[in-house]
Amino acid sequence: MLTSGSPEQRYKTIQAIGNACLKWGFFEVINHGVPNTLRDEMMRASESFFDLSDEQKREYAGKKLFDPIRWGTSFNVNVDKTLFWRDYLKIHVHPQFNAPQNPLGFSETIQEYCKRVRELANELLKGIMESLGLEESYIQKAMDLETDSHQLLVVNLYPPCPQPEVVMGLPPHSDHGLLTILMQNDHVGLHVRHDGKWIPVNPPPGSFVVNIGDHMEILSNGKYKSVLHRAVVNGKATRISVATAHGPPLDTVVGPAQDLLDNENRPPLYRGIKYREYLQLQQSNQLNGKSCLDHVKVNINDTCCK
């Protein structure tokens, strides 16, 4: 309905997206145009990667944040006080495409999957911009998203745990970037913080779970807030999630949209920061709620006194 519906259907869909961003920070997308066959192949290929020998995977054990491909465990083993029950594969897939050579065919699957999800993200961002009262192409023009947007693929493996009640896959956190688009296998484990409670997310088959990131909170000047979520594990089955984080080019300074500001009634609540610098700030510390976003919040009392 967002891309092919009538004007009335599109309007209602944009209103629904805006309402979801305002109240939840999360929503589910169906009829998204990404073929189920491609989704299934992406999930199978991801599982095959983690089935590789440690020696094969160690080839991608990058240590630097912007290494094209990184395989590892936990979140940041250099600063984590306790390791999380999670292995990951992180790949910078756009604007420069990268992929592991193994398993066979994985690279081709990643490229097609990420291309289709990137197209979905662009359409969702248009709808979100309209829900904020901006032109649908506002963010594409302001941040050059059509050609140079940054897309990070993160594949997570959460093995079964003999004591799932005492470990965490990933602790409560918010995401960097504008949008994260997630699919997972049949084993649920995503929890969203809403009205002071943890809500398990069990999406319809074939759907994507979408959440807004810290940079959408910054751009909307706090109208749409990134929301805490976590990953839990279970004692019987392996959970795999495939997430793509969508943000502006790495050297783009992200601040509140000027069209949403009024110096007297709606002053900027966040200072501008390069996307690259924000990633470095988040990834070099422990994963701790929304603490990273606190670094770019403006002290309103100081602003009023100037």
Structure notes:
The strands form 3 sheets. The protein has a 7-stranded antiparallel β-sheet. A hairpin with a 2-residue loop joins strand 7 and strand 8 (197-200). 32% of the residues lie in helices and 22% in strands. It has a single domain (7-305), classed as B-lactam Antibiotic, Isopenicillin N Synthase, Chain (Jelly Rolls, Sandwich). It has helices at residues 7-23, 36-50, 54-58, 106-131, 138-143, 145-148, 214-219, 275-283, 291-294, 300-305; strands at 26-29, 69-73, 87-94, 150-158, 170-173, 179-184, 190-194, 197-200, 208-212, 229-231, 239-247, 253-254, 273-274. The model is unreliable at 76-81 and 302-306 (pLDDT under 50). By secondary structure, the protein is α+β, with helices and mostly antiparallel strands. This is 2-oxoglutarate-dependent dioxygenase 19.
What is the compact description of this entry?
Keywords: Dioxygenase, Oxidoreductase. It comes from Citrus sinensis (Sweet orange). 32% of the residues lie in helices and 22% in strands.
Shape: globular
The tally of domains stands at 1
Structural class: alpha+beta
For the biggest β-sheet, the strand order reads 1-9-6-11-4-3-2
Mean pLDDT: 89
Low-confidence region ranges: 76-81, 302-306
Number of strands: 13
> What is the name of the CATH architecture?
Sandwich
Under CATH, the homologous superfamily reads B-lactam Antibiotic, Isopenicillin N Synthase, Chain
Instruction: Output the helix-strand order.
Output: HEHHEEHHHEEEEEEHEEEEHHH
Radius of gyration: 19 Å
User: How much of the polypeptide forms β-strand, as a percent range?
Assistant: 15-25%
List the total number of helices. Answer: 10
* Named CATH topology: Jelly Rolls
Percent helix among the residues?
A: 25-40%
CATH classification class: Mainly Beta
Biggest sheet statistics:
7 strands, antiparallel
End-to-end separation in angstroms reads 47 Å
